[in-house]
Amino acid sequence: MSDRVTELHSIMPITNIPSVLQHGILSHDGCAVLPHRDVSMADVQDKRANKSVPGGLTLHQYANLYFHARNPMMSSRRGMATDLCVLRVSTEVLAIKGAVISDQNAASKYVRFLPPDMIDFLNFDMIYADDWRHPEDQIAEWRHSSMKGAEVLVPNSVETRYIVGAYVVNQDAENKLVNQGFTQPIQINSNLFFW
Q1: Considering only CA atoms, which of 109, 30, 18, 35 is closest in space to residue 64?
Q2: Any alpha helices (H) in 65-187, and if so which ranges?
Q3: Confidence grade of residue 38 (pLDDT, cut at 50, 70, 90)
Q4: pLDDT at 66 over 70
Q5: Cα(106)–Cα(1) distance, rounded to whole angstroms?
Q6: How far is residue 152's CA from residue 68's CA, in Å, rounded to a whole number?
Q7: What 3-state class would DSSP assign to 140?
Q8: What is the mean pLDDT of residues 152-165?
Q9: Which of 55, 140, 159, 168 has a CB 3.0–4.6 Å from the CB of 173, allowing a cystine?
Q10: How many degrees, rounded to 5, is the angle at CA 38 between CA 46 and CA 153?
């Protein structure tokens, strides 16, 4: 596995932390039965609702993690940055039975779903790039934007024991996170939130 993959990320509303501490990071379907704040993009969720991993589950039955949270999803939610955190998740989840990786956002028309042992087939230069804009080439920008959303899909949920810390945009967000009962290490990383 690439030495660049030291952790995985889950973009999470801070108000959902008590539920996460109790139930873990849940799939879309798992969240549906619990009170929670949803910051996902409705049009993307509509695409995910009708898509399955070949030989696996529907996308809504997986807890999804990003390789890098500085991606189009976070960019679209930058105005909510003080109400969000990025949960840092151990790469040990790659060994969970049924886990799958995607080489770009799982809702993409051109996504490839791969077993975790094929992780080195992902383009980490593109995934970890700070910027995916290509002003001279719209198709390259679309492709890169989708790659920024590469995911690890874990069946049903990611247990809390895999959460090793969190990133927040500023001290105010850190205070909010602590007030929700989060006790793992917290780091301020405004760049991750496009601030």
Answers
A1: 30
A2: 72-76, 124-127, 138-148, 171-179
A3: confident
A4: yes
A5: 20
A6: 11
A7: helix
A8: 98
A9: 168
A10: 65
Place of tokens 């975790």: 116
> Residue 70 has which token pair?
């500085």
Q: Are strands 163-168 and 113-114 parallel, antiparallel or unpaired?
A: unpaired
- The region that residue 122 occupies, defined by phi over 0 for left and psi between -120 and 50 for alpha, beta otherwise, is beta
Indicate the helix (H) or strand (E) that contains 102: strand 100-102
Residue 49: predicted pLDDT: 79
Domain ranges within the chain, ordered by starting residue: 8-190
pLDDT higher than 90, residue 127: yes
52: its two tokens: 């399955």
Q: For position 43, what pLDDT does the model report? A: 67
What per-residue confidence (pLDDT) applies to 156?
Answer: 97
DSSP-derived secondary structure letter, 58: B
Given a cut of 80, whether residue 17 has pLDDT beyond it is yes
CB-based contacts of 190-194 (< 8 A; 24+ apart in sequence): 191/70, 191/130, 192/69, 192/70, 192/74, 192/86, 192/167, 193/70, 193/74, 193/78, 193/81, 193/84, 193/86, 193/167, 193/168, 193/169, 194/70, 194/74, 194/75, 194/78, 194/81
177: helix, strand or coil: helix
